[in-house]
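can u do me a favor
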């Protein structure tokens, strides 16, 4: 997991893809992502911006409509058992990352599971967002389902 994140504020190639998470408690979520995943804080709040390897996480609080999204309510997941969005983090050694993040307080749903074309496991952040941690073991060489 190497690679420097592009400049969030002045993207060299015109754009940077980030993940926005609406959270109940920015301080709690920032501490979790720093402690468990090892993210570094670029901006403390409004919004909180965290650098994670070659990407960024933006944490913002729940709230009502704003002038640029007049009919939208920003809410953290109401139910952690329903998947609507998940971060997918690809690593070179999923078992090492599982052990490292577990030692830092990450609570995984299961141990890494081998699915042939990838090994993966999942953990949840404090607001219930699902985070997939996976290691490719042949997914690009595997034919697409139904293409046989």
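np, heres the sequence
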């Amino acid at each position: 997991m190497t690679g420097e994140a592009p400049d969030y504020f002045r993207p060299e190639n015109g754009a940077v893809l980030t993940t926005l998470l609406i959270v109940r408690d920015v301080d709690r979520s920032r501490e979790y992502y720093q402690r468990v995943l090892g993210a570094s804080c670029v901006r403390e709040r409004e919004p909180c911006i965290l650098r994670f390897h070659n990407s960024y996480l933006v944490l913002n609080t729940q709230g009502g409509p704003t002038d640029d999204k007049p009919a939208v309510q920003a809410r953290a997941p109401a139910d952690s058992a329903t998947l609507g969005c998940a971060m997918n983090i690809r690593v070179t050694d999923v078992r090492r990352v599982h052990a490292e993040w577990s030692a830092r307080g990450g609570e995984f749903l299961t141990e890494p599971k081998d699915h042939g074309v990838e090994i993966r496991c999942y953990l949840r952040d404090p607001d219930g967002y699902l985070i997939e941690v996976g290691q490719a073991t042949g997914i690009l060489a595997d034919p697409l389902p139904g293409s046989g």
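The beta strands are 19-23, 40-43, 48-52, 55-61, 86-90, 113-114, 118-124, 130-136. hope that helps!!
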